[in-house]
Inverse folding.
């Protein structure tokens, strides 16, 4: 069932979704909204109600899929590996991949582009040392990271490093992070990969 | 929006638009400066009298936030005469007038236009001593921060729109928003504080960020100390968050360092756009207890020490 909630302001889309879901005991309701706030609200509503939810951004609207009822409604591949949200922690401690600098920059950009294209995403990325340049002044990489962030990856940038490089007010994507994030991340995540 | 437009400077303009402050302040004599502000919006509650009260209280708030005293108010009315009964407008104006009188001000007129969408608010003039203007640009490192009303009015107003509030909570919400910041302002000007701003459309995070930037300080907020209407947390988890609040969070994100351990809903509430919110006061640590006690004595809706002002990193908000 598809509910077209485009053109409606908060909280109408949530109310429309709620009504549609109340009419079924199990099944999928897809809600279309034209603003990110409504998509986020639907995500919260679904999570609070204990339903599976998935958001896809189309050209000028968001499609929020909400599944009510038996878990085996979900596509099999998604069931295979239960995502905990704490599977992969990626630490980027450099702005160039490998020794040769110019090649390293090309490789770094290609790495994030490939990650995005194949949707092989870490759960969180932490940028530190010269890596902080990638979330502040690297105009080629910032848009790619923004898209990766929109796909659900948490992005952090080391506050101490931003200060060191005088880039504190230049952060363009994600949030400021602290050494706490690194220490706890290495402890909590199933796998940590350190680049650079 | 105004960037690039030719603005004249004037030595008597004590507070203009540069620091995104609450109102304009213009000195007219060595002992007196005028405060000028206006505010109006569409209905957020169903009862017209309550809407009038809330819009009026909201309009006066900026005067109080600057440490001033309101003198006069004018009605701003946009009304669909063909669709709605004039009785509704009369109730709105009655509510507005009640609050104008509570503020100790006089209603001196107003202006109305026909509009398919109903809106109401006030243009307010107040006074303040030129040397005692409270801006958002003078918070000092070492200060503590006090908030005088609980958060959650944006989320609850959205839940009300969605028909999810019971009568008791609806009344509680309306009363909170219709409460003037008058008592809090009087107490803070008696005691003497460093900086103040009122919490409205940009949420606590947005207004605190304005203060942090204007004062060149870091503001640290302790999430568990921030007063919140408890039902708002449930409604926020359920997706009753107004669009403005989502936008606030996005806007603040680059200057926000929020602890990883806090639940996401906390961020939602701290960024929740408020209507007629409380005052965020930056006061020296020595005067904090006295200020808190006097606010409690005056039955201020909330009296909470919610954070502190640090010298670094400048222009940032930390939430722990």
């Amino acid at each position: 069932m598809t509910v077209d909630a485009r053109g409606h302001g908060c909280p109408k889309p949530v109310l429309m979704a709620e009504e549609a879901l109340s009419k079924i005991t199990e099944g999928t309701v897809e809600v279309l909204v034209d603003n990110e706030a409504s998509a986020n609200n639907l995500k919260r509503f679904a999570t609070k109600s204990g339903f599976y939810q998935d958001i896809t951004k189309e050209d000028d609207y968001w499609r929020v899929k909400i599944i009510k009822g038996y878990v085996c409604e979900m596509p099999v591949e998604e069931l295979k590996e239960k995502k905990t949200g704490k599977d992969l922690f990626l630490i980027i401690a450099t702005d160039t991949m490998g020794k040769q600098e110019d090649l390293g920059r090309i490789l770094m950009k290609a790495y994030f582009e490939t990650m995005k294209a194949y949707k092989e995403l870490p759960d969180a990325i932490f940028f530190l040392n010269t890596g902080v340049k990638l979330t502040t002044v690297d105009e080629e990489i910032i848009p790619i990271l923004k898209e990766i962030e929109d796909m659900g990856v948490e992005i952090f940038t080391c506050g101490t490093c931003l200060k060191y490089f005088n880039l504190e007010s230049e952060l363009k994507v994600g949030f400021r992070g602290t050494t706490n994030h690194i220490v706890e991340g290495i402890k909590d995540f199933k796998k940590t990969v350190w680049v650079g | 929006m105004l960037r690039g437009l030719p603005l004249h400077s004037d030595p008597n303009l004590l507070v203009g638009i540069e620091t995104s402050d609450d109102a304009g302040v213009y000195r007219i004599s060595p002992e007196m400066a005028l405060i000028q502000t206006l505010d109006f919006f569409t209905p957020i509650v169903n009862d017209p009298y309550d809407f009038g009260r809330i819009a009026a209280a909201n309009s006066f708030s900026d005067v109080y936030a600057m440490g001033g005293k309101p003198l006069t108010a004018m009605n701003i009315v946009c009304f669909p005469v063909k669709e709605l009964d004039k009785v509704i407008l009369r109730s709105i104006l009655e509510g507005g007038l009640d609050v104008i009188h509570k503020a100790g001000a006089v209603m001196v007129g107003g202006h109305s236009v026909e509009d398919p969408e109903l809106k109401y608010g006030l243009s307010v003039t107040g006074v303040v001593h030129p040397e005692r203007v409270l801006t958002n640009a003078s918070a000092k490192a070492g200060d503590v921060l006090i908030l005088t009303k609980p958060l959650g009015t944006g989320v609850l107003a959205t839940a009300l729109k969605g028909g999810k509030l019971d009568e008791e909570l609806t009344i509680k919400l309306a009363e909170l928003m219709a409460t003037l910041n008058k008592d809090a302002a009087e107490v803070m000007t008696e005691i003497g504080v460093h900086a103040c701003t009122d919490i409205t459309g940009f949420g606590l995070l947005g207004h605190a960020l304005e203060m942090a930037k204007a004062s060149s300080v870091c503001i640290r907020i302790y999430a568990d100390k921030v007063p919140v209407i408890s039902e708002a947390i449930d409604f926020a988890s359920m997706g009753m968050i107004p669009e403005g609040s989502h936008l606030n969070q996005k806007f603040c994100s680059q200057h926000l360092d929020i602890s990883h351990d806090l639940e996401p809903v906390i961020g939602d509430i701290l960024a929740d756009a408020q209507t007629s919110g409380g005052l965020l006061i930056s006061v020296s640590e020595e005067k904090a207890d006295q200020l808190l006690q006097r606010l409690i004595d005056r039955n201020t809706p909330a009296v909470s020490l919610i954070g502190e002002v640090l010298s670094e990193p400048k222009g940032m908000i930390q939430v722990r």
